[in-house]
Amino acid sequence: MTTNSSSITHAIFDMDGLLIDTESVYTDCYNKFCAQFGKQFTWEIKQKQMGRPPNESAKIIIDHLDLPITVEQHHEMINTMLLKEFPYSKIMPGVNRLLEHLWQHRVPMCIATGSDQTGFDVKVGGRPELLSKFHHWVLAGSDPAVGHGKPAPDCFLVAADRFDPTPIDPARVLVFEDAPNGVEAALAAGMKVVWCPDPRADISVHAGNPSVTVLRSLEDFQPETFGLPPFPTGDPSE
User: Fold this and answer.
1) Does the keyword Cell membrane apply (predicted)?
2) Per-residue pLDDT at 234
3) How far is the CA of 25 from the CAs of 29, 35, 83, 222, in angstroms?
4) Local structure of residue 133 (DSSP, 8 states)
5) Strand, coil or helix: what is 138?
């Protein structure tokens, strides 16, 4: 798809499943979590949770499966599993090349994630080279400025407002997402989206939308399609 977006000036990245392969960890741990109650973790539940702050995510699965636990008990149980596995999550294909390219061309970037501070620190605390490319990050799970999690636009609007200088026209921001909730949030914020969905996601919901570009992975991203400098000739993907 060709997008008329030569005026793109800033980039915002989701984290889970987009920069770091934590979604596979979530799936494995939630399968074990649900099995303790004789329940099944389905794609229907997962896609509703993706991108949301921890408390909202917990309430979704508790309500959907009618689990006899509180949000706090959910956190204690699932975090025991997640926090052990997150440090072993790998960087997603195409990420390092894209971040380095945008950074070299002085495109301001930030992270906007539904994670809270604890989860964020465990996932990326040992990756200073990754964080060094970003101007800032917004953690919707613990940031008081973010009133509502994705699919509300709050997270992305706060992220855009923290670039320097401001204000920034949302139409000049390109968001990179993997979650349907994140795509909806970016569109609600008036931003364009590169969507790298789970193969199970229904991409037809955004068919024909000029503000949404669907890619298999960030390896397939072509900067020049968005008015950004192209990768150097012969630059290998990861």
Assistant:
1) no
2) 67
3) 6, 16, 10, 29
4) T
5) strand
